Each structure stands twice: as structure tokens, then as C-alpha cells.
Amino acid sequence: MSKLVIKTKILGVALAVGMVSISPQQAQADDLQRLAENLCEYAKTDNRSSMRKKLKGASMRLKAIYPGLICGAGGTLMRVAVANDAMSAAKFIASKAGKKSLAIVEKDGKTVLEFTEGLVAGGDAGKQSFVDLIKGKL
């Protein structure tokens, strides 16, 4: 009978330890989700300094997370900045994301450069400065 109690206690401790090891992973995922949401919001509002502070506080490099960073239906972080005329944020993103990240083909089959050139061709001449910025980084 005492062996059964000991086995039950060991099983209970093992389950508790297993639950503890899952919790930090969930917390890290939640932190990354909040970081992504904040970066997307800062790109919309052209808040370069907050982007820098948030990345520094999280000890993250934009180059490391940019390929997986999608801002809802807006697409990548750079597309969000372009769509919202956020030049300061776009300059920061272009300088920190890296050439390979800016050349990624997105869901619609276009790179951020092709997307931005399409906006210019569609009559939005104000986006030309974004095209020049992106071309300068590629």
C-alpha cells in the first residue's frame, strides 16, 4: 500500500514538473506575440524610437524575427510602414531587417519592392521615396 502512495506522489511531482516546463514556453510565445503586435502598431504610427526600444528591451534583433513577423492583413512590417506613409519606421526597418528579408516574396506573390512600385504605378506618387529607400537597401 505504501508503494502505491509513493508512486502516486512521484507521478504527481512528475506531472507538476511537466506543467512547469510548458509554462515558460507559453509565456515566451505570449511575449513574442505582444512584441509583434507592438512593432506593427509602431510601424503604423511611424514611431521609430519605440520600435528600437521595444526590440532592445526584448533583446531581439529585427533581422532575426522579420521573416516571421506578419501584421495581420497588412503583410510584413515594411508593407505596413509603406501603407501608412511611415518613412521613419521604414528607414529603421530597412536598415535592420537585412537584404534577404526585404526580398522575401509574400503571400500575394510580390516582394515589398514590387508592392510599393505597384502603388506608385497606381497613381500614388508619394510612395516613390519608399521605392527609392527599398532599392537602396537591396
Tell me briefly what this model is.
The chain is an all-alpha fold and 138 residues long.
Descriptive notes:
The chain has 138 residues and is an all-alpha fold. It has one domain: Alpha Horseshoe (Serine Threonine Protein Phosphatase 5, Tetratricopeptide repeat), CATH 1.25.40.20. The protein has 8 helices and no strands. The N and C termini lie far apart (72 Å).
Strand and helix layout:
Blueprint lengths: L1 H43 L3 H10 L4 H4 L11 H7 L3 H11 L1 H4 L9 H10 L6 H10 L1
Helix pairs in contact: 1-2, 1-4, 4-5, 5-8, 7-8
Structural features:
single chain; 138 residues; mainly alpha; Serine Threonine Protein Phosphatase 5, Tetratricopeptide repeat; 8 helices; 0% strand; globular; disordered N terminus
Any idea how many domains? Answer: 1
How many angstroms does the end-to-end distance come to? 72 Å
The whole-number mean of residue pLDDT values reads 82
H and E string: HHHHHHHH
Percent range of helical residues: over 70%
* Tally of contiguous helical segments: 8
Main sheet makeup: none
